[in-house]
Amino acid sequence: MVRYRHQLVITNKKEKYKMKIVFATRMGNTDELVRQKLGYTDAMLIVDGSEKVDGDYVLFTYTDGYGEVPGVVESFLENNKAGLKGVVATGSMVRHADTFAAAGDKIVKDFGGVLIAKVDVQGTEEDHAKIKSAIVAL
User: What is the pLDDT of residue 71?
Assistant: First the structure.
């Protein structure tokens, strides 16, 4: 496995596959999940929604309010819908059990891709392994 800026290159014996990792964070939990827990240190941070991504990518996002897609993420997706392959949504089961990580469901419904995982705060080691495997499989 080799990492380049804003993308993860996974090298198998027969193929070379590139998947960019893009994320939005408000409280820092999604940042910590992506960069520290999963090790995607070169992931691209969505700051204001105007960012552009070339190629395929996986989106990590928090859930806003009561199950809403954050505005900055919605703006980003309007400009980058074509490359979206997967979504990992974070949330808090303690604070928002009824709408836990609902942004992921809404993004997949409205913009496409597959829902890879819904993660409580920064997730567990089991969540991390599932996410990494799913990204490789895309």
Answer: 96
**In this structure, what CATH number is given to the domain that contains residue 76?**
3.40.50.360
Total of domains in the chain: 1
C-alpha 122/C-alpha 36 separation (Å) is 10
Answer whether residue 71 is part of any domain. yes
Between 9-13, 31-35, 108-112, 125-129, the lowest mean confidence (pLDDT) is in 9-13
The residue type at 68: E
110 within a domain of the structure (yes/no): yes
- Taking the chain, what is the end-to-end CA distance rounded to the nearest angstrom? 15
The answer to whether 6 and 42 have CB atoms below 8 angstroms apart is yes
Report yes or no on 7 lying in a domain: no
40-67 per-position pLDDT tens digit: 999 999 999 999 999 999 999 999 888 8
Q: Give one DSSP letter per residue of 65-121, joined into a string.
A: TTTBPPHHHHHHHHHHGGGEEEEEEEE-TTT-GGGTTHHHHHHHHHH--EEEEEEET
pLDDT in tens, 79-92: 999 999 999 999 88
